[in-house]
Amino acid sequence: MNLPPLFEKQRELDEKIVREKGLEGEDLLPRKILSLQVELGELANEWRGFKFWSARQEPVTKVEHLCPSCDTTGYDKISEGHYDHMVPCIECEGTGKLGESNPMLGEYVDCLHFILSIGIELFDVTPERPKPFEPGNLNITGMFSGLFLSTGEMFRMLYMGGRDRLSDEWHRLINAFILLGEELGYTEKEIERAYMDKNSVNHDRQVQGY
Ligand SMILES: O=c1ccn([C@H]2C[C@H](O)[C@@H](COP(=O)(O)OP(=O)(O)OP(=O)(O)O)O2)c(=O)[nH]1
């Protein structure tokens, strides 16, 4: 993964959030670590593969968004005098749907945002590529636990000493996260496209006062 263009997009977004929310001078690193942990939980929840108690262990990769305006019928009723006309719904153009999304990929790129955002706090010079680490021989469940361990380590280094090792831990984290993306079936291109899309949604949300 080529990091500099992603760091650049992430930096622009982070700076906008700090400006819009008046957070200049605040130490956001502890909150970013917790945010990543929360998003990792959300990603695991969409993956579903650890839910041994459930009949639904397949990843949630497609959700259709139904049109509330026409109640999914695709038609609007227009009354003229004694007559009702059915016309195609203007919200969904007669399809009954507003589109679809990929929840698991969405959560994956939310995690990527926070990993990059944490990286921005740690590096003066943007790393070109993740520093390679020997991958552990883990299944997806183990990979998630490894990522939680890594974020926990970062928290420990922040509060209990070892700040100088935070950047190494970040490299371990992003390596493990990229491997997880591969295991979940995503290509680098797919991830970068989804990241750019969500980055732009995040910009819009700040403008709209999210
Ligand atoms: O400094 C920051 C803070 C947030 N984000 C991004 C990461 C992620 O893409 C999004 C926050 O996650 P999400 O979109 O799930 O927001 P939420 O408020 O948790 O969503 P929900 O409306 O589901 O509660 O904001 C950043 O990139 N940099």
Automatic annotation (TrEMBL):
Note whether Hydrolase occurs among the keywords.
yes
Q: Which UniProt keywords apply?
A: Hydrolase
Keyword Hydrolase listed: yes
Q: Name one GO molecular function term.
A: dUTP diphosphatase activity
InterPro entries the record matches: dUTPase/dCTP_pyrophosphatase, UCP030140
Give the top-rank taxon of the lineage listed in the UniProt record for this protein.
Answer: Bacteria
Any Pfam family from its record, for instance, is dUTPase_2
Q: What is its EC number?
A: 3.6.1.23
Query: What protein name applies here?
Result: dUTP diphosphatase
